[in-house]
Design a protein that fits this description.
This protein has 198 residues and is an alpha+beta fold. The chain is 21% helix and 31% strand. Strand 7 and strand 8 form a beta hairpin.
């Protein structure tokens, strides 16, 4: 069935291969051709895709902010000015390879203490062990209190004052803290010991 408005070709026209001069060949386009509208649409799609990529990257950065922060640890020796000592009877140990950094500070003054204020999500306390009874009390943020015993249970018990017998390592820790300011107070059991804090 012929399309409406389609030009009529007779058998004679086809056979002779000649088109009469008065025959108008007009084929309407199926739709208007607008190249500007097509370019604008592709540009809009490209901008939309770029915006989605930027949004995904932003969400990843926000999600992993705490993870990236916790990868950075700082270890402080007993000499750090960030540790505030209270009391006048603090003494420094003799140099020894079993102390973190070669030394530690200590006191037997029951009124003495050392305070370390910090901002972070975790804290670690280092100490060596001795062949006699040694205890120190740690209090975090005023309510988390624990008495630590630094007696080397694998060593024969000896009189107070004998040399340290086990290497300084992490003896107490707290993690998954709220990211903000915190305070660690080191107070006496029968000693107050400060070696290293991370």
């Amino acid at each position: 069935m012929p399309r409406p408005n389609a030009p009529a070709f007779s058998y004679e026209v086809w056979r002779n291969g000649k088109i009469p001069a008065d025959l108008s060949l007009s084929f309407p386009r199926p739709y208007p051709y607008r190249p500007f509208e097509r370019t604008a649409t592709m540009t809009s799609i490209a901008w939309s895709a770029a915006a989605k990529v930027h949004l995904v990257v932003l969400m990843l950065l926000v999600s992993y902010r705490h993870v990236l922060c916790t990868l950075v640890n700082t270890t402080l020796e007993e000499t750090s000015p960030q540790i505030v000592y209270h009391g006048n009877s603090w003494v420094k140990s003799e140099a020894g390879p079993l102390y973190h950094g070669g030394f530690h500070d200590q006191t037997e003054d029951l009124s003495a203490s050392a305070v370390f204020n910090f901002t972070g999500v975790a804290i670690y306390y280092y100490s060596s062990l001795w062949p006699f009874n040694v205890t120190t009390v740690l209090t975090l943020d005023g309510n988390d209190t624990e008495t630590l015993n630094f007696t080397a249970v694998t060593s024969p018990q000896e009189p107070n004052g004998n040399p340290v017998t086990e290497n300084s390592t992490i003896r107490w820790s707290r993690s998954n803290l709220k990211d903000g300011p915190h305070s660690l107070v080191m107070s006496p059991g029968n000693f107050v010991l400060v070696d290293a804090i991370m």
